Fold this protein.
Amino acid sequence: MKKIVVTGANGMLGQDLCPILEDNGYEVVESDIQVMDVTDINSVQKFLEENKPDIVIHCAAYTNVDKAEEDLKTAELINVTGTENVAEVCAKLGIELVYISTDYVFDGEKNEPYQPNDRTNPLNNYGITKFEGEEAVRSICDKYFVVRTSWLYGHHGKNFVETMLKLAADKKELKVVDDQVGCPTWTVDLSNGIVKLIENGEYGTYQVCGAGQTSWFGFAQEIFKIAGLEVDVKPCKTEEFPRPAKRPKYSVMDNSGICRDWRFALRDYMSLRVEEEVAE
């Protein structure tokens, strides 16, 4: 049985990933800042030497896209230095590394889905630090998977689906941005995609996201349709909701068939959500 250490195990992705790994026969060691501080290489070395994993899945990250514009130092410390530390210890100990990255490494100037080897040109500090993390993994490790994902949502964290449903409880009319297009991805589908990659064993850079594409407006429409809610959703432009961090207008990625259509995943997410509400 292979042993996997998951960093950021208490995050939205980690809380779905760990049980899915266990269901697939892996021994999972959950870690967070309390047991392994990725920004401290001695902490990383001590934890990995003690646990002797075959694989590390590095989910821990600074993910507040807008806050990274004013706090680049912290974003760099966690996303760049932290990733370099994990990569260096993994390389030294011969451990496979899976690094979770983002569609925000792209600038959105393309008109067709991005391929893994397309030119990167991040528009915001978050995207820059995640790309620098990618580069660290590729330059330091021989045994690695860089896994780009996008528009992530899951039951264990704040996300667009829950935000829309919460807003719909108070308002019958909403404006949602229609000029940013991407690939919504359920944390469960991303977790299953990661399992496929590590079992396939071909190292490299991959894009693990929902198949197909939509705008935030289209995403909201589908959420309300599945939920059976009467909400008047109106499309608007990014300029109407200014944010500190610039987002790519088009960040659709070709997922090479790793994940299913985003709509099927959303339906399953919503069904599970209803089941949990009934159980409570």
Summary: The CA atoms of residues 8 and 59 lie 5 Å apart. The helical segments are 12-23, 41-51, 72-93, 125-140, 160-170, 187-200, 216-227, 262-279. The longest helix spans residues 72-93. The chain has a mean pLDDT of 95.
